[in-house]
Amino acid sequence: MQLQQLAYFVAVAETRHFTRAAERVHVSQPSLSQQIRALEKELGADLFARARGNIALTDAGEALLPLARRILADADTARHEVQELAQLRRGRVRLGATPSLCTGLLPEVLRDFHALHPGIRLLIEEGGSHDLVRELARGSLDLALVVLPLPSPSPALTTVELLQEDLVVVTSPASKEPRRPVRIADLQGEPLVMFRHGYDLRELTVAACRAAGFEPSFTVEGGEMDAVLGFVRAGLGAAVVPSMVAARAGGDLRVTPLARPGLRRTIALAHRSDVAPPRAARELQRVLLATSRSPDRPA
What we know:
By secondary structure, this protein is an alpha/beta fold. 43% of the residues lie in helices and 24% in strands. The chain has helices at residues 3-15, 18-25, 29-43, 59-83, 99-104, 106-116, 129-138, 200-211, 225-233, 243-248, 279-292; strands at 48-51, 54-57, 91-97, 120-126, 143-148, 157-171, 191-195, 217-223, 239-242, 254-257, 264-272. The strands form 3 sheets. Strands 3, 4, 5, 6, 9, 10 and 11 form a 7-stranded mixed β-sheet that branches. The chain has a two-stranded antiparallel sheet with strand order 1-2. It has a two-stranded parallel sheet with strand order 7-8. Strand 1 (48-51) and strand 2 (54-57) form a beta hairpin. The N and C termini lie far apart (52 Å).
């Protein structure tokens, strides 16, 4: 079984068309078809059902597809690892992070990392923890900053706790001055600006409100972090956000802490257990750990 054959197989599986797949991988259609037949012969099973021009995966093809994607991703990672110079003058890191961490934690970390290793490309993917875990498992990411506990714990992942962060309530300066600090129960009946489905902060906030005995009331929902902060500035309602995000939002928002026990979230760095992260990713991991554990880091 050759990596080239797996790449051809994945191209056909994703395009459901031999000619378009051949164009994607830059080979002739007969060459691609020949390699697919050779792969099927080696595996002893048909990977595609071909009927009247329609291409569909067989059961064997369905079973092979996620494995082939992972093998190709691992091979790509290995290629980049080998190509890195000993002094880390070049390379890449594929880092996933939740949107709030891209706003709150990452700017300073990436600045420090880039100053140390300016030749390393940083590829950032934003998403919820559930999506990031899936991308890690597929081999599409080297590292991911996720919120614990994970929505579906995976024994194939290694997580290292970085920090715990308080959540706060942000409102527009024109809103009435709240009592300090506020309780979750005080948010009952208050108009809230809420993140889209899939946001870890949405799940955490809604769960806290329900634990306090009420369903939250949304004036606007479905936004990303920047949109939510903009809606709050416009006076559409309050939002529960991480303290690091609130600290970076500027002085045009009123920030109110939550009464004890409040709400906290645990941030962890995750990577696949079965594959060591590339050298550049390990260096970024070191910078992240050093930054998160620095006594000068804002709470």
